[in-house]
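Hey Z.,

So I finally got round to the pyridoxal-5'-phosphate thing we talked about over coffee. Here's the setup:
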Amino acid sequence: MHIQTAAVQTLRDHEHGAVVPPVHLASTFELDAATEDAAYAYQRGSNPTRAQLEQVLATLDGAEHGFAFATGMAATAAVFSTLQVGDQVLLPASVYGGTFRFVDKVFPSRGLTGRFVDDLGALTDADFTPATKMVFVETPANPTLRITDLRRLVELAHRHGALVAVDNTFMTPVLQRPLELGADVVVQSATKYLAGHSDLLAGTVTTNDPALAEAYALAQKAQGGVLSPSDSFRLIQAIKTLPLRLDRQQANAEQIVAHLREHDDVTTVFYPGSHSEDEARIHASQATGGGAVLSFELAKGLDRVRFIQALRYPVYAVSLGGVESLICRPATMTHEAMTPQARAAAGISDELLRLSVGIENIDDLIEDLDQALAAAR
Ligand SMILES: *Cc1c(COP(=O)(O)O)cnc(C)c1O
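And the result:
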C-alpha cells in the first residue's frame, strides 16, 4: 500500500462500516468484575480514538509502534525519558529552539548533558564516549536545510551503543522514513505538516524497538502529556490530505526556489541539497523530495522590514507546515535562544528569512514575492 492510500484507508474496517472513525470521549471504561480486565481502562493510558491515530502513525512510518502526544515537545520529552543520569546526547547546534531549551534548562537537573555539534555529518568515533547514549538529529536542519547522512550516522552511533532519534517534522513520512534507514526512533511535531492547518498542537513518536515502545507508553501514562480523543480524531482526518497538501506545497516551494535563485534582489537561497552536490546526493538517497521550507537572504541595501510589510500572503509568524504560507526571521524568532556565535557557526545570519510554503496558487505567491522585493528596494 502506498502512503497516499495508507493515509486514507488504514482505519476503514470498523464496527459500523462508518467511513470516518468514531470519537470515544470516555475518560474511563468498564472492567470485567471477575478478571478486572478490559482493552481500555482509563483514557490517559490508552483509548480507542488515540489508538486508531497511533495505528495510522505507525503505518505511515513503517513502524511497529506509534504514540500520540499533546505537543511535539511532549513527544520529544518522551524520547529523552529513556536517558539515565550521566548520559550524554549529541545534537545539532541548529536544533529546534524548544529542544534546545529542554537540553539547556531541563537536562542539568536530570543529570544529563547535551553536546551541540555544528555538523553531525562530520562526527567520528572520537566524538563518542561511553556516556554518549543518543544522537538526536534533524535532517534537513532548520533553517539552513543542511543535510545529514542518516545511514552513516546510524552506523556510527550503533557501533558505540548510542540510539539515533530523528526529528522528522520537516519531511514527514511522506518524504522520509528514518526507521527504514536504521534510526531507532522518529519524533515529529504533528502541529506542522501532519495537522497542516495551523489549528492543532500534537506530537508523535514511532519505533520498532519493543523496549523503547514500553518506555514511551510509560511516558504517556506517567508524564501524562497525551493527545485528547478529539484532537486525535482531528489529526486522523488531517493526515488523510497530508500527501496531497505536501505534494502541492513542495511543488510551489521548488518553483519559488528556482525563481529566487535567478532574482537579483536575493543572494542566498537555502533548500535541501543546495549546499553541495554531496548533500544533494545524500538527500536524494534518503528522502523523496526537498519539502516545502526554504530560506533566503535579501541582497544588500534591501529593506527587510519593508519587504515583510509589503507581502500580501505569507504571514509573518513562527511555525510551518500549514496550508497558508508563513515567513519568519529565525535569528530573532525560532533560534533566538542560541548565542550569536552559535548562530553564526550554524549559518543563521540576522538577515536570513525562512519561508514555509503553503498551497496557494504559485503565480500569486511569486507575484507577491516580486512586488514585495520591489517595494523593499
Ligand atoms: C515545532 C517543532 C517542534 C515542537 O513541536 P510543538 O508541537 O510546537 O511542541 C519540534 N521539532 C521541530 C522541528 C519543530 O518544528
